[in-house]
Amino acid sequence: MSDMLKTPHSGSSILLVEDDVRLAQMIVPYLAPYGFDIVHSQNARHAKDALNKRKFDLILLDLMLGDADGLDVCRYIRTSCEDDPAIIMVTGRGDPTDRIIGLEIGADDYLPKPFEPRELLARIRAVLRRMVKQQTADSSGMLIRSGPLEINTAARTVTLRQKNCPLTALQFDLLLTLARNAGRVLNRDQLWQSIRGEAYESFDRAIDVHIGRIRQAIEDDPRTPKQIITVRGIGYVFSRLPQE
């Protein structure tokens, strides 16, 4: 393999859930030379079988499957896979509502069809790079506590009164960024740059969707949040609460 094709994510395992065989036959050989271990499942049933047999680092998930709705598959992954793989949704649906719902139920990214293979590769690398970066940064085992909330940066877990708060990898990174900057107002672009390394589109609601999801998990009353406060017209701030 040439140096150009080598990547720090070589060996990462990917499950491609795509019922368009021709598209899958284009994606697999394109990504394989970059060192990814790719398994293709043509429908939801086969995908679930694959997930039960082995661990995957990332799932490329088509929303329009012949035997199931991709959103339902995403919910299954988030509730059934303890390894918590990253999820990139890939779909030809044009309704932005699907994108928002996908983010709300646990997708880390969303790529509309048609797409350039290079963009798909870039998004895969960005998601995996973010996961590796956070795992490296969190290796110290540091605990962040705020009131009844505890963030374990090594285990990448969040608990509220000793009860687990399920978050996606991206949502955990977003919460951790806010918590590490407690008391400092961060705008959406700062947050997106921190967790994604790219500029934030002003029309994009991704940050707001993920903040809403995090609040559902960590706030006693998401409608009147005490941990993540909205600063109207600017962004968000994490409020460190006294220990209970």
How many helices in DSSP terms?
A: 8
Question: Could you give the order of strands across the largest sheet?
Answer: 2-1-3-4-5
Instruction: Name the beta content range.
Output: 15-25%
Overall strand count: 12
Helix and strand composition category: alpha/beta
Computed over alpha carbons, the radius of gyration is 18 Å
Mean of pLDDT? 84
Note the run of SSEs as H and E: EHEHEHEHEHEEEEHEHHEE
Which topology of the largest domain does CATH recognise?
Rossmann fold
Q: Helicity, in percent?
A: 25-40%
- What is the distance, rounded to the nearest whole angstrom, between the alpha carbons of the first and last residues? 56 Å
By CATH, the superfamily of the largest domain comes out as Response regulator
| Largest pleated sheet | 5 strands, parallel
Shape: globular
Count of spatially separate domains: 2
Unreliable segments (pLDDT under 50, ≥5 consecutive)?
1-6
The CATH architecture designation of the largest domain is 3-Layer(aba) Sandwich
